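Anyone? Bumping this.
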Amino acid sequence: MGFWPIFLLALMEGLVSAAVLAITAAGLSLVFGVMRVVNVAHGAFFMLGAVGAWFVTTYVPGPPALVFLAAMILAPLCVAALAGLADIAVLKRLNYSPDATIVATIGLLYILEQGALSFFGPSARPVPAPFSFRIQLPWFGYSGYKLAVVVAAVVLLAVLWLMINRTKAGLVMRATQSDPEIARAFGINTDKVYAGVFAFGAGLAALAGVLVVPIQQAYYLMGEGPLLMSFIVVIIGGLGSLRGTLVAALFIGLSDGVISMFFSPTLTEILATLLVAFVLIFRPQGLFGRGAA
Amino acid sequence: MTNNLGPFTTRRRVLGGLAATGATAGLATGLGTRFAQAQSSAPLKLGFQLHRTGIGAAYGRWYERTTKAALKAVNEAGGINGRPVEVIFEDDGTDAARGPQVLDKLINQEGCELVFGPLFSNVVMATAPRAAELKIPYLVCSETHSVAAGKLNRWTMQPGITDVKSQVRAVAPFIFDTLGKKVTMIYPDYAFGYDHRDFLTQAAKEAGAEIVKLLPIPVTETSFTRYFAQIPRSTEVIYHVMVGPGVLTFVKELGEFYGSNHPKLFGFIDSLEAVNIDTPSLSFLEGTHFWEGDCRYAQPDETEFDKAYRKAVGVNDQGAAINDPKEISTYAHMFSCWETLYVIKAGMEAADYKGPQDRQKFVEAVEAMSDMPASMQHPQGAKRFNGKTHQVFGHQNISQVKDGRLVRIERTSIDAGLYPDETDYTKMSF
């Protein structure tokens, strides 16, 4: 293959990672932005989405496309409910103190991973894609489902943007983010907002997990990579800035595709981590962040 | 009460004693008649270092089942030296750091006579030195060449499965003569993969073939398409061997990348172990070739031993669990546990093994072994053990995918996999 076909393949691969990363990181960014909680268990919610998709596609009868659609709805809902419960039972009792919530979410991460190990098992299990077609280009073939993931991600992120900027729920979230005390003074029940945002963020991670599982497989440790990458994206983009997160996800995803294709995947991780270090030194609020409060 | 015997020690001793008495009494009533001739009817405990979780979990599940099936057969036939046998399984998480801890626990807490069973070479490499320190026989089912290369020690042996060097040497003529002489290798980026890389490269040199590209892939990788772009166009054969949770994704993406218009493929079945090959996304594998240690699909000329072994472990003719046809076994590798347990039995009986004081005698007894005919003890086929290098050599199978099944087209001789000794453990001290 010449340079351009490989470059095209790199961009396609990069777009797929960017798409999944953007959805996952959006959830993380939202939780941090509104609640100031660094959610280390975010990767575990991603994994639970994938595992949930396996359960739904295995035990619900019906045509593959419909069953997968059901998984896309059921798995994130269940994960969101679980996260909401964790917020009420744990995070709220810690008064959302930044230090305590980091430790608490680390604990949550272990509980969820070990729970998946106990109930789902240690094996990687495949989930069939809702449809399978292969696109044959002159130089190589490509999975049609992977391209569908990119399209689905674009739609989802557009909906997310509309929701935050054009709905009442979004308004309440933004109000709580900019000043919880004033929001409370205006009659907003911030406890409910926090529980809702934590659940919603986890649901987004789970949705990304569902989308990715036909490409990879459901595996109880699959959340660790996405967690690290999401943190990288959120830090570079600016903690709490959704726009920054999306731009950073696109940037990291595409450079992941290109660098790992032409050099090595390890180099991508080295460069991304280095970039985080530089951002933290020279622009701690991130590329699109509003500066430390 | 004296100072060195605290209340805790005393209580633990009493409880331990009670438990031991209870266990012995229970066994004596149940199995007393069968094991009547034994001098001591206390069960003989063997430790199994199991990859129950972590990247080796797919293998671990079946290694446990195979070992339990072998254990049942051994006990039904009177145990070892007339004593009933127990196997204690301990999970190492396929983690090198936990390997030595598991060995310690099995020996010091569970009171096992020896330890066997690990597959992943990273765990083996980490655990073997500890086995030598504690002077514990350590029988690995790993395929690693490190044993025969002399990198380990007098206490570490591999009597149940051929090492990678021998496997590769046995199948290399088929690859270079039948499939092609320009080979791209895709292999896991750790010791096991390096064995493949080194020995195929060596075999290629000897056969006048060429390795055009080496593609090492990290075991925890989840996305593979990016690597395929680096496969040179001049490649005639892709030699692939992958392990870990991503194997199915690896093969699926290879199919998406090439479709049916791919170079010839020769894979070690590791790339598809515990994976159902008869699915639409893997249809591109039709006609491609695989190495198999033991044939997953029952072949028309299956031996009576393999048939009985298959049944005992609970595997059907398609290589899946009898009670769940969706659950594919690791059939190509797991015979090693069965055969290793029978080597333990033979070695302990030859050494008249009574307890830990006979561990050295046991190692010497295994070192004295040589030809092992095909039998219920060696259902995969005949083997030849080399006591000097602590490595066994057996037949290898080359299979082709036909109608979604693996059909054996060649079975190599034991001689095809032999190579000059690289070490002599019998000259080492214990």
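Late reply, but here is one note on the structure posted above: The CA atoms of residues 236 and 263 of chain B lie 5 Å apart.
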